User: Which sequence fits this backbone?
């Protein structure tokens, strides 16, 4: 099959996104890979979000489907789309309401993903170019991660923003098999692909402009402010609660995990309880890792404080 024949379902979750939505829609319409359909789940927007979507639908020939969302947070909004078996395509792309895609975003993702066997879960993600509300470059590029994408990393860290993620049908079929609550749709996608022995492609080249503004549901991971927030979350026990939720979700599909990753998950759980040295030893045995030295140090501090 030629690349242009591949059908892409763009999964957009919206809520009061009128301020920047039009630019995002235009960037999707400008994709060099034109074989796409936009599915929008709107969480009871009170602004002109739906009106903008309907106007875009009326003045273009693109296939756009708009429906009400679950109205229970942005992660559940995205999951309601990703878990819907009626949404069919060859590839699927998460889409935020306030970014601006580069013209080759979908084409580049498909070029990478089509190299994986169709029955193997495969996920593409990339860096982003950070811009401010006026579309001015803000902090350059998002962090460059150099360690291999793997379940040992996915257990404790998400390296790919959902706004950059594109995945194949095998991945969507995996997601459809889950119905437990998740911390974040993108982190869960990274976890489920790596846990089951799938392929994750991390592209060092950015695929979109990631707009930073006061209404971001999740902002950039860069800078001292972001590091301070992560540290505060650790001391408050928030990271531990997230890990607990992810572990519960992974156990719901443990029959799909590779034997090696199921063993890693079990040892990681041991690192979250018991005496201090027992926790530290099992964290080391689990082989889990974050992408930076500081991140790994923070993880061991969390284990020492029983906050992992």
Assistant:
């Amino acid at each position: 099959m030629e690349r242009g024949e591949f059908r892409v379902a763009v999964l957009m979750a919206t809520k009061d996104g009128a301020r920047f939505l039009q630019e995002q829609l235009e960037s999707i319409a400008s994709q060099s890979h034109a074989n796409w359909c936009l599915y929008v789940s709107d969480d009871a927007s009170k602004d002109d979000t739906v009106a903008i979507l309907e106007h875009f639908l009326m003045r273009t020939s693109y296939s756009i489907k708009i429906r009400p969302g679950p109205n229970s947070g942005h992660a559940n909004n995205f999951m309601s789309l990703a878990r819907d078996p009626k949404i069919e395509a060859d590839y699927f792309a998460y889409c935020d309401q306030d970014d601006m895609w580069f013209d080759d975003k979908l084409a580049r993702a498909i070029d990478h993903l089509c190299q994986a066997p169709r029955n193997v879960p495969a996920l593409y993600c990339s860096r982003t170019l950070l811009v401010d509300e006026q579309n001015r470059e803000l902090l350059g590029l998002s962090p460059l991660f150099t360690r291999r994408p793997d379940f040992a990393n996915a257990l404790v860290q998400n390296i790919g923003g959902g706004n950059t993620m594109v995945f194949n049908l095998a991945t969507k079929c995996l997601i459809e098999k889950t119905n437990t609550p998740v911390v974040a749709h993108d982190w869960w996608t990274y976890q489920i692909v790596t846990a089951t022995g799938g392929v994750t492609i991390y592209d060092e080249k950015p695929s979109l402009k990631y707009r930073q503004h006061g209404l971001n549901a999740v902002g950039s991971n860069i800078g001292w402010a972001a590091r301070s927030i992560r540290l505060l979350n650790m001391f408050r026990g928030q990271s531990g609660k997230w890990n607990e939720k992810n572990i519960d979700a992974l156990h719901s599909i443990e029959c799909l995990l590779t034997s090696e990753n199921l063993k890693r998950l079990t040892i990681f759980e041991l690192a979250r309880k018991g005496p201090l040295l027992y926790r530290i030893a099992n964290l080391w045995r689990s082989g889990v890792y974050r992408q930076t030295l500081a991140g790994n140090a923070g993880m061991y501090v969390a284990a020492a404080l029983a906050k992992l």
In short: Residues 3-211 form a domain with the Spore Coat Polysaccharide Biosynthesis Protein SpsA; Chain A fold (CATH 3.90.550.10).
